[in-house]
Specification:
The protein is mainly α and about 90 residues long. The protein contains 5 helices and 2 strands. About 60% of the residues lie in helices and about 10% in strands.
Length: about 90
Amino acid sequence: MSKTFKGETKSGFKFEISERRLNNYELLELIGEVDEGQGQVFPKVVKLLFGDEQAKAFKDHLREEDGIVPNDKMADEIKSVFESVTGLKKS
């Protein structure tokens, strides 16, 4: 059975990600594409990282009163997830 990492983002979203999801080459490829300025693949990163159900909950957590999920908040929170998981891996 795969190890699971649990954490919480800066805004308070509690997540659970399996080590198996993090050890996905396709996720690494997409992160590289985002780093190269190809932001259109960012939604795929979120789905590969969280899975469909948790990705929807993540977006809903960040959704503002007018229904918009701001790009900058999404990017900051994903960064927070990776920082949190990296910290968990080291402990």
